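Subject: sequence -> structure tokens, single chain

Hey, anyone have a minute? Need the predicted structure for the following. Not urgent.
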Amino acid sequence: MVHSAYDSFELLHNSTAKIDAVESYGHNLLLSCSDGSLRIYCPESSANDPRSPTPSSDLYLQYPELRKEPYVLERTINGFSRRPMLAMEFLKSRELLLSLSESIAFHRLPNFETLAVITKAKGANAYSWDERRGFLCFARQRRVCIFRHDGGRGFVEVKDFGVPDSVKSMSWCGENICLGIRKEYVILNSTNGVLSEVFPSGRIASPLVVSLPSGELLLGKDNIGVFVDQNGKLLQEGRICWSEAPAAVVVEKPYAVGLLPRHIEIRSLRDPYPLIQTVVLRNVRRILQSAHVIVVALESSVYGFFPVPIGAQIVQLTASGNFEEALALCKLLPPEDSNLRAAKEQSIHIRKSRPRYAHYLFENGDYEEAMEHFYASQVEINYVLSLYPSIVLPKSSVIPDPEQYMDVGGDAPVLSRGSSSLSDDMESSLPLHALDSEERTDLESRKMNHNTLMALIKFLQRKRFIIVEKAAAEGTEEAVSDAVGHNFVSYGSGRPRKTGKAQANVSISSVARDTAAILDTALLQALLLTGQTSAALELLRGLNYCDLRICEEFLQERNQHACLLELYKCNAMHHEALNLLHKLVEDSNSDNPPAELGQKFKPEMIIDYLKVIQVRSIPVSSEMYLRKLLREPLCGTDPILVLEFSMLVLESCPSQTIELFLSGNIQADLVNSYLKQHAPNMQTTYLELMLAMNESSVSGNLQNEMMQIYLSEVLDWYKDLNSQQKWDEKAFSPTRKKLLSALEGISGYNPEVLLKRLPPDALYEERAILLGKMNQHELALSIYVHKLNVPELALSYCDRIYESGPLHSGKSHGNIYLILLQIYLNPQRTTKNFEKRITSLTSNRSSAFHKVVHVAVKNKGRLSKKIAQIEGAAETRISQSGTDSGKSDYDTDDANDNEEGTSTIMLDKVLDLLGQRWDRINGAQALRLLPRETKLKNLLPFLGPLLRKSSEVYRNFSVIKSLRESENLQVKEDLYSQRKNAVKISGDSMCSLCNKKIGTSVFAVYPNGKTLVHFVCFKDSQSMKTGGKGARSPFQVR
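Reply:
Had a minute. Here:
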């Protein structure tokens, strides 16, 4: 954007009806809406001011322009049009409003009464009004009609001509009419109807005829606007090249405003018709000129483009170096501002001459003062950088070469020779190619000394903020445009476009970004040449546009390793940066580190690099610019790269590397496989930390992996002690403690695989935990009681199983204590064939498990019995009924075991269990399991609290039952009292629905007890409410 010619302001927001057409009348807005109404809006200040005058015939003279403030609805005229309004126009000299809908009508202002309707214009799609003569021409199908206003209330038909095709656009041009038909433009002689061809119209867009204030015409041919005179002859004044084909164009000197599909473009009417300003607005329906304001109507809102004062525009153009355009605007200042015009022109000429003086100061060694004048004169940085031939600059397809500024610098000696005493000194300003090699070398060295570069650095830093800000804005707009599918048009005046049939933008080059690349590349070189390494690093760490190839070669030649790392980093060249950093770390750790390193590089720097959030600072494409905006961590964008280079420092920085894996967004399986291959000793540490952070985020495969690692270490430790005959089941190494803790605390591993690896005569505690995970509770409890001889562990095991059940009261979880009772009461039975059952379990676990589940679901009441039958184990059957057969289950089982010898029961453990867990054990089942010789006094700790609890529960239920019965009686009493209500029907009782007497008819009473209706009327009303389906009545029927 060169400068701001118009300020956009939203006059009306969120209209309740869709806007079809818009026009202005004085300071009021006239909106024709889709509902056929005409809505008049006035400024908010006028609506709130009681002294505001009422509409009158001279309203236009009192308030000729729209105001830059919100508008509010003043009044609405309904039924103004029966069909959508195509256009409206205010005829100033006749105080009429012309409207084009189903026909053309004229309305008297300010009351909007219909003055005349041209019935012949029914179906017209285009018209043109000649304000000077009062002539109206319109096109209908393939006819063009001309009417004349007779000065009164009517219009007189003048001519009616036929044309070859339907007219798309038309305008008066003197005495003739220019028509844009489907394939060409023609000039229609309004006297005899003779047609003269002008040139063919475009292939993509419809014809567009725009009348200029000078009487000439602007004809559209796709995205090109061609100037012709009133006779249709081409004018040699160039052409307006819009970025896309405009749908409408309005002209307000010195600018032409075009309505494009996705935005509005404002271009200068001076050759070469450059782009001045772009305003992005969507769904624009109408655009028109009102006095000096451009009115833009969208579907539900209206914007006003108010012109920026000419003086302010001149200041903007002068500051940006567009002196010719600024001088042209000076001529538009009114005659009464002649002094202001002279001052502006003088200021512009002074600023144009400043670069010559700055060039003279630079050649004479006054570098600081020269840069001040260069900055004040707003010359392009390319010209200033051309004074530094040793600084390498990137080539640009948009920024012109410095030779185009030779009228400023190269011709300075000639221009100043006759007017300044400094001409002799400026004779030395010769091109470099005119000097011999020795003189050229001397001149270059003089221009690259410290003072020269410091002056350049200050100049570039002052220019940098605005240039980088514009480049970032263009990058953002381009990124958004790509993201929404090219539905956004960026600001700018120098972006060449390639337009195809679909009018899609093929490529967009950026002036601001190319300028920023030149500036940052030069600034980086100047900073390093003056020894300002810290400032160069700060430049690279922020948003910068340094040219990669040039800066890389420059930094490599001068061994600026830290700056080179930042250059790679800001360009997302992580592989190159990490390779360089790894090499620098190795060189730093070598016995004879190179002297040019400058600093010591540590392995932790690689970890820090892998952690850092990396973006690309140079938005060479919209995709990369979106990455810059979104800022993704390196661990999430390239995890393979992180793993590859982290392995190089894993041994030297193990804890930092593991922390990197945990903090980064890298898949745990990927990290585990990398560690397993390159650093197996760190695999356990990584898995332990992963589980400590969040167990649910660790997959079952990784949990199995960690368990296998623990078990392998424990088995190696067991084999070593067993070979020395020093194995003790109660010995615990640190790894075994970790294994036991993990087996109990983790639930995602596969216990069957681990169980197969355990030795048959050792590691019983691990075996018990695994059997518990497989729901083999009897085997697990047998190990705790008979193998480990630790009943406390068995009781803790039962508590965990019970407490993990639903509400701690499930049958399967409550029976766990009965299983422990059986183990205490039948020690020989539970230990018999223990090893055989373990072997059978591990070999045929899969099929047996599915069979157990199926049988358990089918016969839930006989769970223990079925499991015992399936596994082939001679277990004690647990009866679910409380019936006493006179003989205990222990006695029955003991009789069956007489052939195998007697067994010593653990009665003390049984009594302790009953006393401690009386509230979790089914009393009847427990008594059936006890031997008949058990003394009753030994069962007092079990039976006492059990009976007290049962009695308390019985009493509580009795109280609740009584309360329920009492509540039921109260409800019945309320029901009886409600049914006692009586309704008295007299001869005057009327139906509330039909207003007829009730008489002896069946009637219904509403719940209020007062409203009476016929039952038939009530049924009819209910049928109407329910659509004839009928509904149950909530009312009493008598």
